[in-house]
Amino acid sequence: MTQKHVLLPVPDAAVRDGANSRKVFIKTYGCQMNVYDSGRMADALARDGYQPTEDMQEADLVLLNTCHIREKAAEKVYSALGRLRDMKKQRAAEGREFMIGVTGCVAQAEGEEILRRAPSVDVVVGPQTYHRLPEALRRAKGGERVVETDYAIEDKFEYLPDTDKAKIRARGVTAFLTVQEGCDKFCTFCVVPYTRGSEVSRPVSQIVDEAMKLVDGGVREITLLGQNVNAWHGAGPKGEEWSLGDLLYRLAAIPGLARLRYTTSHPRDMDDRLIEAHRDLRTLMPYLHLPVQSGSDRILKAMNRRHTAAEYLSLIERIRSMRPDIAMSGDFIVGFPGETDADFEDTLRVVEAVRYAQAFSFKYSTRPGTPGAELDDQVPEAVKAERLERLQALLLKQQHEFAESCVGKVIDLLLEKPGRMPGQLIGRSPWLQSVNVDAKTSRIGDIISVRITGTGPNSLFAEVA
Ligand code: SAH
Ligand code: SF4
Ligand code: F3S
């Protein structure tokens, strides 16, 4: 249910003119959803007179937008907070204000504990309540240490996106748009259902409206985001149930929107409508991030993924029969409790069968509070390390093979930013590869036809076709 709130006040003239302007530095960890959230926090704070800065030294407020997915990610936050504590002391000696906030998934998971471990932190705000950040900061200025990690009853999306064209343009020609949040899947290794809460889909009208404003501001490519993006569902114009496929058809009709992507998908929610969208929509890029995590049915079951390796492979076959040029991407975890050599070999077999263009792989990290943490039979670190090395070598080989297979092809390139050399621009291929091209007469935001001429370690080279 949505409870209406008064919009935040427009800053007064002095603040707008910069006479009283304060600066915020936001450090983003974790996934694209955090990148999107950082943008919305910057929007909310701008209405309160904070200008974003890339230089921490000139900041009056530092926000760490954190990730809790693996132990390392969470620990990074505490080491950053240690450095910030020293900065705060120095500022205090100079008589200058300096505030520290922790937002995102560590904030949600640890709440009060952060204040205990890091006494210099002023505010802790979870991902469902970041729209309350300006208010939390006002309270903190009054001497309170604020923790806001309740699930808000009001809809944070209702008053966040900044539709100022100049600001949208300044952020570039590609944009993220969160359409779904949270997760009800409860994979036994994962913290997301606890940090982001249960699955919520944004309504169609809100999404279409935000997409149109982005396009109006010069955005050419939109990536729809969700922890479980293909579980998105909503009501169509006649009240009929829409799935992500339907939403993509609707968004593809927005004039000026050249490219659509979405991430991250779960194999169980890859329905026919979504696969048809890949067949029918030229706007929908032929790239799919579809994590499998493991190739062993036994481990998949223990992970609560609720599908088998064979089901995953036949799903990909079906998708490829509809969109033969689709590039596959995935996530893998090695060393889940109980994983044997034979289980790991099953994972390698799935990788061999799929031929990934891109992939991300991790050692299993025990997360307190998840069912996986309770399991016996944890895999020794050295075994995890050895498996990860083998898996990554295979994935890297496939990534190079995919890049090599592009050489000689003529493809569309969306130009995103200047390259290192004068006259050089960097763009993205339909398959999300970074491509360098000499294109003196083209501009950022153009989609041009190029011929791939070679491959580098992390990018491709091309000439105008
Ligand atoms: N919703 C997505 C994944 C989101 S988390 C999905 O269902 O696939 C991003 C990735 O982090 C996961 O795909 C997984 O590979 C990795 N990950 C999540 N929890 C992890 C853990 N405890 N240890 C190691 N990797 C983990
Ligand atoms: Fe985590 Fe599984 Fe949900 Fe993905 S589907 S966010 S891995 S619980
Ligand atoms: Fe990390 Fe939270 Fe994203 S745990 S991966 S920032 S949803």
UniProtKB/TrEMBL annotation:
[4Fe-4S] cluster 2 binds at residues 183, 187, 190. [4Fe-4S] cluster 1 binds at residues 31, 67, 105. The keyword Nucleotidyltransferase does not apply. Coiled coil: none annotated. GO terms for molecular function: 4 iron, 4 sulfur cluster binding; metal ion binding; tRNA-2-methylthio-N(6)-dimethylallyladenosine(37) synthase activity. Its EC number is 2.8.4.3. It catalyses: N(6)-dimethylallyladenosine(37) in tRNA + (sulfur carrier)-SH + AH2 + 2 S-adenosyl-L-methionine = 2-methylsulfanyl-N(6)-dimethylallyladenosine(37) in tRNA + (sulfur carrier)-H + 5'-deoxyadenosine + L-methionine + A + S-adenosyl-L-homocysteine + 2 H(+); N(6)-dimethylallyladenosine(37) in tRNA + (sulfur carrier)-SH + AH2 + S-adenosyl-L-methionine = 2-thio-N(6)-dimethylallyladenosine(37) in tRNA + (sulfur carrier)-H + 5'-deoxyadenosine + L-methionine + A + H(+); 2-thio-N(6)-dimethylallyladenosine(37) in tRNA + S-adenosyl-L-methionine = 2-methylsulfanyl-N(6)-dimethylallyladenosine(37) in tRNA + S-adenosyl-L-homocysteine + H(+). Residues 169-401 form the Radical SAM core domain. Its cofactor is [4Fe-4S] cluster. Keywords: 4Fe-4S, Cytoplasm, Iron, Iron-sulfur, Metal-binding, S-adenosyl-L-methionine, Transferase, tRNA processing. Residues 404-465 form the TRAM domain. CDD domains: Radical_SAM (cd01335). Belongs to the methylthiotransferase family. MiaB subfamily. Monomer. This is tRNA-2-methylthio-N(6)-dimethylallyladenosine synthase. The lineage of its organism: Bacteria, Pseudomonadati, Pseudomonadota, Alphaproteobacteria, Hyphomicrobiales. The gene is miaB.
